[in-house]
Specification:
With 241 residues, the protein is mainly α. α7 packs antiparallel against α8. The longest helix has 31 residues.
Amino acid sequence: MTNFSLLTGWVAKMMPTDYIGFTFFIGCMAMMAASAFFFLSLSQFDKKWRTSVLVSGLITFIAAVHYFYMRDYWSAFGESPTFFRYVDWVLTVPLMCLEFYLILKVAGAKTSLLWKMIGYSLVMLITGYFGEAVDPANAWLWGLVSGLAYFIIVYEIWLGEASKLAKAAGGSVLEAHKILCWFVLVGWAIYPLGYMLGTEGWYTSMLGKGNVDVAYNIADAINKIGFGLVIYNLAVKSSKD
C-alpha cells in the first residue's frame, strides 16, 4: 500500500478528455525521442557540424524536461504553466538563434550577429512574460514591444546580414537557412497569436480569449524538432560532399 501511495504521488492522473494534458505528455515524449536521435547521431559527423547537431539535441532535451513539469503543473492546478513555458523559451529560443550563427560561420558570420539575434530574442520573450504574468493590465504595450523584436528577427534572417551570409555560402547552407527562415516566419507566428488570445487588449474583440496551450504545445514540437531535423539534414549533406 505504501508503494502504491508513493507511485500516485509521482504520477498525476490524466482524464481521457484532457487534450491539453495529452499534448503536454506527447510533447515531452516527442522532444525526448528527438534528443536521443540527435545525441546518438553525433559520431557520424565532422567536428564542424557536431556542435550544430548537439545544440539541436540540447534544445529538444531542455524542452522535454520542461514539458514533464508543465504536464504535472497542468494536471495539479488546471492552469496554463506560463512561468515554466517562458523559462523553456528563454533557454531554447536563444539556442535556436545560435543555430543560424553556427551554419553561417562557413560564410564568415561574426559573433556580433549571434549576440544581436540573442538580444532581440530575449527582449521578445521577457516583454512577453511581463505582459502575460507581471503586468497584464498593459499587455498590449508589452506585446507591442515583444512583437517588434520578433519582426526584427524576421527581417534579420530574411533580408538582413544573416540573409546575405546565407546567399554567400550558397548550396546546402542556403537551402537550410531558407527552411529555418520559414520556421521562424510561419511556425513562430503562433506565439504572438497565442499571446493575444491569452491576454486582454484592443485585439480581444476581434480574436476573443481562450486557452492556447494545445496550439503552443504542437507548435513547440514542430518548431524545435523541425529546426533540429533541418540542421541534421544539412550536416548529412555536408558530410557527403
